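I'm curious: can you give me some protein's one-letter sequence along with its backbone structure tokens because I've never seen that pairing?
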Amino acid sequence: MVTANERKQDIINTIEQNPMEITIAVSTRKIVNGAWSIDDSSKTLTVRIFQQKNPEVSVISDTKGTADTSKKYGMLADHNADLTDLSEERIEFESPYGKMEVLAIYPQIVKGEICGYQCELKRVS
């Protein structure tokens, strides 16, 4: 059985094989005096971004124009990233792969302890 410390070290070693420093922009929406208030903040993380095996590309068209999106990227972050606080907010960042948006955050848990985070990413052009 793998211990939480061993899993944390595995995740750190995997990130160190191809590390990338990103700054995520977080938009927090709160109700203030009966109206929505949007607070913008940022957080710098060292992560590993990788390509998924299922290249699913779609074109979104609306009144602003069209955009190509691809759900073929994933991200691995260590336990210090503390992404659980941000799981209900919209998270976007720039990377060498283009502008990314986090679709889902999956905590990697061993014996009740969070060891890291695996995320689904969508490239937005």
About this structure: Residues 4-17 form the longest helix (14 residues).
